[in-house]
Amino acid sequence: MTDRPFLECRDITVQFGGVRALDAVTITAQAGSITGLIGPNGAGKSTMLAVASGVLSPKSGSLLLDGEDVTHLRSHQLGRLGVARTFQAPQLVGEMTVLEHIVLAQRIGSGGPHLLRDYLTPGRSWIRADELERASRLLSGLDIGEIAAATPGALPMGTRRLVEVAQALATRPKVLLLDEPAAGLNEAESAGLADLVQRVCERFGVAVLLVEHDLELVLGISSNIFVIDFGRLIDQGPPEHIRQSRQVKEAYLGVGV
Ligand SMILES: Nc1ncnc2c1ncn2[C@@H]1O[C@H](COP(=O)(O)OP(=O)(O)OP(=O)(O)O)[C@@H](O)[C@H]1O
Ligand SMILES: [Mg+2]
């Protein structure tokens, strides 16, 4: 744990055409803890994750990683520095097994050779024994070892989401950005996911930034929460503060309360 925010998005402004998607918003995420980012539809949450992962350059503001200014780095460079993300829509490849997804992510994380050439060579085993061992260990550590040989398409949505988190983790991130990981999950699946994200934080000391519509999930596992509405930061604080927040109620109910 460090008291210094591991990730800081400082005074971030993003403009699409004439529209401000983010207006001087500052959020921070600490290593070894879960930070929630919530707000109604179109508030700017995915836009903030795009900035934090180097996919989008802000019009103004800075991105800091462990105190270093990384505003001008692109996503592959930030990836090398330990920033991993999952997407709002699932990104798994139908034909590869779960284990193969994890090995690929591990290779990307270690800057090792790309696997596609090996993968596409018929009859060749492209996974080395040490990679197999490491990927299997990660899956069992996350209690999903039994699905190693499955292809994602054959798995329930909730399990697929767990695989995506495992895949992001396999790159050994310092920062994990999760965009609505519980979308489309039932209650039991959401609980499994919440449990996984918490374990990730504890075991690997990762700074997790969690965007999620399921407020109970966010309030249940985050230590600090930022709330944005129409591109502006309207409140922030621990769950007990957010539960009582008038601004948050207004933003979600759309009325004065
Ligand atoms: N590439 C883009 N071009 C133009 N406008 C965009 C683009 N991406 C997002 N926007 C707009 O920016 C605003 C913020 O969008 P964003 O996707 O960040 O919201 P969000 O909080 O993630 O919403 P949701 O909860 O629906 O996922 C919205 O008004 C959206 O329409
Ligand atoms: Mg979004």
TrEMBL record:
Record-linked Pfam families = ABC_tran
CDD domains xref list: ABC_Mj1267_LivG_branched (cd03219)
Q: Where is the ABC transporter domain?
A: 7-255
UniProt keyword Nucleotide-binding, yes or no: yes
* Keywords associated with the record: ATP-binding, Nucleotide-binding, Transport
**Molecular function GO terms recorded:** ATP binding
Q: Which Gene3D superfamilies match?
A: P-loop containing nucleotide triphosphate hydrolases (3.40.50.300)
Which PANTHER family does this chain map to? CONSERVED COMPONENT OF ABC TRANSPORTER FOR NATURAL AMINO ACIDS-RELATED (PTHR45772)
Report the protein name in the record.
ABC transporter ATP-binding protein
Per the UniProt record, the source organism is: Rhodococcus olei
